[in-house]
Structure formats: structure tokens, C-alpha cells
């Protein structure tokens, strides 16, 4: 009933927004016009200058200068206007208020060369705050030299952008778009023209949360021949040792980049091509607990070389079909080869495999200008992904829980083939005080995957109760001659298995002495599976400038996805921006109050559909065996043995009532213009996610009398089900300060106070008890209380620029488990209870508290993610210098430096040095949370990357130094 009411509310809001937007888009009859010429100081016409005309209410009309530098605005109401002009290589200029009446007005504009000012841009704070929908104070716009100061390494670049975007809003966060398309990867830095982060977060054009969205735009071709060649280098001699490795493995990074742009047909067609080759002898650090040849338990800390070779390239063609139509075609290719995949952490070298991947992307964009008010854009993208992996499957895998993972890799020859299509059409227009946008996006994905993963089987060893042994491996007995029981670790169970098997004891005797595997997992059947998905999104957006100091944005979006039975997915959005002190066009606002509310749907990933297709109980059978005779890990049981024990396959399925998760997000904040070109932004952001995804074993055993079990669906094996019944709640307080303090120094800093609660951390989250979800609500893995970021640029002497990038955060929570499967659901996610009697046998006392791994009925189970991980801080530093030489370029770019950061001199040579973790601070990763592991509470690897949210953390060194030399012509 509650969900039905919510749906009715969403529908009502949506229809209200449509009718309100349509009813208000009525203009007045135009009466005047304005024209003129844009020239430089020498009288040369400036072509393609961006010209914007704003009326008293703030309504903007845009145009560009033609081949003679002329611009024209027709059909203007009587009133006051301001003309703003921008062009590459020139300082932007705004006119005094212009009176427009029925006469034709004429205004020529002379632009001066741009002053070389380097800064980290978060909008142009020198122009003050604004009530424009895309000028929110926490938005970040990076261009030219701003992008130059970002890391050269592609992994560090991605980490820096994620850090600038801030924490994930919702369980999955925002997304990366490249040239208006969903992106599988970021293009190389030298290919990027502009980056926009967190801009206009409540726009209906965003299918996912606008908060933490990253939009990347690549460089177009140029009218003159330009190019750039770079070489990057790093070596283990420049880096510090990884604190979790006993040895310093060889490491070297070699990177070669080249790009070239120029005209094909003068002022008609141009091109931009780039090439990037990256060769990295990286490291993986093994931090495990293993047995030596004498079966003694010892630690293993070893750095292993994991070579990687990555080649990327792209070609972009820009073609002006006619004055009203422009075509952009871009093709990119990326190929990566990896060795020793799967090694590191708890995984030993025997688990290594080799992998290759390739990605081809074709993008086509056609822009049609109907008139000066209405523009239509059509985007078409095709992405072809190919992944191959080969590993040893001749030996069963050994998983000694949270001690080590050994044996064969169990990869075999796996491959993944994906084809993704994206088609979107967006029409935008300026009508009186309304800027309207209407668009449609269609997504399709076709996946074919062949994975003989675990066809050789995996033995699982877990901790738990067992008889107590003395130093001579003899059973310790009490005064009555009865064996004493104790809690043993997973590695101790594995040691006993090997030791007593070598003594010639039977499998039953080994098990009686605390040995033997706890589980045997194996997959059989057809390794090939395919699936396809389609999704549709339709949106309408109206940004209505009611008054010069008040903007109201109304939007509505509709989402549809195949494979989901529920199709009523309306997502209304509303947002306002009000300035109490900017009531007239001539008075620039200093304070803007912003607020908004929106609903955002999150599509179910196509890989989950592939999982349910593969493990449907027929195509592939995934067996979980606990029969003691089968758990003799010396050999892999053949299929007839498994059939003899009537093992039931594990099935994956979707719940019948599966829905698309959606987030209800609200925001309220203030932007304030301060002295010294500084903007302060304070924003509260709250969101509630309903129908979030999680997994559950819906056929877990139910306990009945005499210790026997029954199953809700019958004795058909495990049935793992994806459900949309979880919730996620998040509150964030963001305080941002952005300053272009002077010509030498600028900075951007942010502090975030956050809280995240829920009962899921994603689709693969299983509850400790499949039939009692009451204890699952608690901290999520993204619940980081404090976050801090500082990014700045200082222009020192002799063209030297210094760029610090500091990230700090409190620790992430982690889950504490017993490392045992007590309830028989085949999952080792059981959580202990708080110990109330420290003298009770089996109680485990740790620095994080005392826990009872054998809780009695009714005992209080500890909350999910009860553990607190270590804090994180890293100071990254970049220094670079550029030497310009040679005669200047064409007169159209005389003086200074162009807006894309390329020197106006004919040649330049740049040297940059990037240091990650300058002060060599040790940032441990999330600790092991398994109470039965000898590594409980310890971190086994480093989180030392460019930022805390970095997905790939290089292990080559705790402090990494990379140098790059760049020649530009």
C-alpha cells in the first residue's frame, strides 16, 4: 500500500511538472535586433567566438561569429541586455547594459589576449555565484591547464576525478560519461578538452544520481597543425618498499604518448588522433599464512611481478556539413595484456593466470541547429568488449579461509564477449524565460560468456570447534579422560588434515581429530551462457528563469528495463536557486540558496542476468558438498561419486517481485561569494534508497526436532535469489571552499561529514541468517564519517607550477564473522554474539571486543560491519615546468596562452614529476574480519593509492615517483 501511494505521488508530481512547464512557455512578441563584429586588437576578425545575450530576467540566447567575425541577434523584446563574448586565446568580455528597442542596434567587440592564469577551476569564481541550474557551488569544471595539473597515470587520473567528485551518493554512486556517452574507460589525459563534475545534479537528463557524476569531453580537431609527444618513466629505485612485502620486487613503468590534430578541409573538416602505450612491471603482494615443508604455520610476505601492457589509440573527425549541421565521428581502441592475474593478498603464485582484453568504441554525434533557439543532437555509440583468460585447472583449488588460497587457478580458458549499443536524441530550446530539453536514450547489451570456472573443484577449510592437541599432536583430556574442546583456526584445520593423513589415518579418523575440509565446491555442465538486455529512458526538463534572482527547474524521467516485471518507473525532479541580493540584472548576486528533490532509478546490471542464466540448475550445475567421504581433498571426486551422494546443484534466480532500485534524494544548500575571488558552498544531501538489491538463500535449511533439517522448497539444493527488498539511507554535509586567490595561487578544498546505514552493500550481500533480517540494518561499507580533500596550484618562479593533492578520511567499517557455516546455508557469513560470560569455552577476546562464536538461541548478534578500519591520509604532489620557444602562431591566437592550455609559441617542452604519497605514510587496507583466521584484525595489504576510493591500488611502492617529458608543437 505504501509503495502504491508513492507511485501515485510520483505520477502526480510528474504530470504537474509537464503541465506547468508547457503552460508557462509562452513568450512575447520580439521587436528589436543587435549585430556587430568581433575582432582582435589588430583588427583581425575572430571566427567562431561564442556570443551570449542575457536579458533583464537572466534569459540567455547564444550565437557564434561567422567567417567575417560578425554576429546577429534578431527578434528581441524591448529592454536591457548584456553581451558576453568568449574566444580561444582571448580574455572573456562582458558589455555594459544595452537598451534594445524597435531599432537595429550595433555593437562591435574588441577582445584582448588572455592573461596566463593557471588555476584549479570550480566554475569561474571570479564571476561570482549564479542562479543558473548548472552553476551550483559544488560543481567542478576543469579545462586546459586545470587538466594539465591532474596525474598523467591513467589509474591515478581516474582516482583523482573520483576524489574530486566526492563520496558515492547512494549504494552505487554516479557514473562517467565521455562526450555524452556512457564510458567503459577514461580517455588519456592528453585527449581531454573539458571535465565537468557534479554539475546540475537534479537534471532529468541524468538517469543516475547527478551527485558524483563525471562528464568528460574530448578534444576536437584544430585549424592549424598541432601535436604533442610525451614519455613517462618510473622505477623501483625511485619508490619506497611496500610495507606489507619483505622484498622489493623489480618495478618499472614506461609510457609513450603521441597526439596530432589539424585541418582536413579549411574551416570544414578537421581531425584529432592520439596514441598511448603503457608498459608496467607492477607488483602484487602476497600476505598469507601458510605451512612450511615441516607443516609449521608461518607468515608469507612476498612481492611478485605482474607485468601489464596497455595500448590505446583514437581518431576523431569533425565535419561541418553545412552552417546548421555538424558531424563528429570518433573511434577508439584499447588492448591490455596481463600476467600473473589473481595473485596477491591471500592468493598464492599457483593461482596465477594470464589475461588479455580489448575494447573498441565507435561514436557518432550529429548536431542540427534549427534556429538560434532550438538545437537537436543525436548520439550513437557501439562498444565491443573482448576478454580472454587462461589458467591452470589441473589441480583443485584450496581455500583455507582468510589464511591462504592455493592450488590451481580454476580458470581454464575463459572468455567474455560483450556488445553495447547506445542511441540518444536530445532537443533543447530557449523560449522566453524557459530553457527546455527533451530526450530519449535507448541502451542494449548482448553478453556471451564461456567460463569453466571451478570445473576442477575447490576445497574449503574453515575454523571452528575441535579437540585440543598438545605440542606432540596428542589429544588433551580432562580428569575423566574426555577430550577437551577448543576453537581452532582454518590454517590449523588444514595442518591437521595434512599431518594425520601422512600418519596413515583414515579420513574418518582425521576428521575426528579436527582435520578434513568443511566444503567441496565444483561446477559442471555447459560453460557457455548468453543474455541480452534493453533499457529505455525518456526525459523532459524545463529550467525556468522566473526572475533574475530565481530559477525553478522542473523535470520528469521515465525508465524501462527488460527482465523487470514492473514498468511504472516515473522519476520526477524539482530544483530551485534563489538569490536574495541579486534581484536585478545589473547587480551580481553574492548569495544563492539552492534546494532540490528527485527520484533516480538504478538499472539492474546485465551481469546479474547472466549469472541467473548460467546457474539455472540445468545449464550449469554448481554443487556444494558437505558429505564427509567426498571431502578427501587428495583427489577431485568424479561426477558419479557426486551423483552417488545425491548432491543437489545450486541455483541462482531473481525474485518474482524484483524491481528497479530507486533513490529519493533531497538537497539544501547555500553558495556565498567571499572576498579574494572565493566561493563558499555548504550543502546538506540526504537520500533514501528503496528496493536496493541483495542476495539470500531462500532454501536454507530450517531446524526441526532432533537436529534434523527441512527445506522450504524441498530437498532441491541451495537456491540463491537476488531480491530488491533492501534499503540504504545516507546523510552528507558538504562544506566546500574554492578560491582563485590571485594570479599565483588557487585552491579547492572540501570537508564532508557523512553517515550511511542500510542492510545491503550491493547485490552480492548475504544476510547472516536467511530467515531473520532484523539484525542486518546497520553501517554500510561506505559509512566513512569524515573526509577531507585539498587541491591547489601555485605558480612559482620561472614557470614552475606546484600542485598538491591531499586526501584524508576516517576508516571504513568491515564485517566481523565467525568464519563458520553453523546454519547450513553454505555461506560463511555467520556473525558472532557479544560475549556476556568471558569464562565460557570458545569465547574469543580481541582488541575490538569479546565475541561468542557459538551464540545460544536469543543471543544478541553483533551488527553488520561492526569493525572499524584504519584511517587514510595521503599527500600527493606534482611539479612541472614548461619552456616555450620558437615564433608565435597565427594572428588569431596572438599573445598569452589559449584556453585549452597549449602555448601560443610554436614549440614548448614540459617536464613534470608526480609523487604519490609524498611522506610515505602507511595506509593499511581493510582488516581481515574472520574470527577463525590467524590474521583476524590485521590488514594484509596497502591502500596506498592516489586516493582512498581508488579501484586499483598499485603495490609497487608505498611512495611512487613518476616523471614525464612532453614536447608540444
Short description:
With 969 residues, the chain is mainly beta. It is 8% helix and 47% strand.
List the helices and strands and how they pair.
Layout: H1 2-24, E1 32-39, E2 50-54, E3 60-64, E4 70-76, E5 79-86, E6 93-94, E7 98-100, E8 104-106, E9 109-110, E10 140-143, H2 145-148, H3 154-165, E11 176-178, E12 181-182, E13 192-197, E14 214-218, E15 226-235, E16 252-265, E17 269-291, E18 297-322, E19 325-341, E20 353-369, E21 374-391, E22 397-400, E23 404-407, E24 413-431, E25 434-450, E26 458-461, E27 464-467, E28 485-488, H4 490-502, H5 507-512, E29 519-525, E30 528-547, E31 550-561, E32 570-578, E33 591-601, H6 606-614, E34 620-625, H7 639-644, E35 649-654, E36 662-674, E37 678-697, E38 702-703, E39 709-710, E40 719-739, E41 745-758, E42 778-779, E43 786-795, E44 800-809, E45 813-814, E46 833-834, E47 844-846, E48 849-852, E49 867-868, E50 872-888, E51 905-916, E52 960-968
Parallel strand pairs: 1-8, 1-9, 11-14, 22-26, 35-40
Antiparallel strand pairs: 1-4, 2-3, 2-5, 5-6, 5-7, 10-13, 11-12, 13-14, 15-16, 15-52, 16-17, 17-18, 18-19, 19-20, 20-21, 21-24, 22-23, 24-25, 25-30, 26-29, 27-28, 29-34, 30-31, 31-32, 32-33, 33-36, 34-35, 36-37, 37-40, 38-39, 40-41, 41-42, 41-43, 43-44, 44-50, 45-49, 46-48, 47-48, 50-51, 51-52
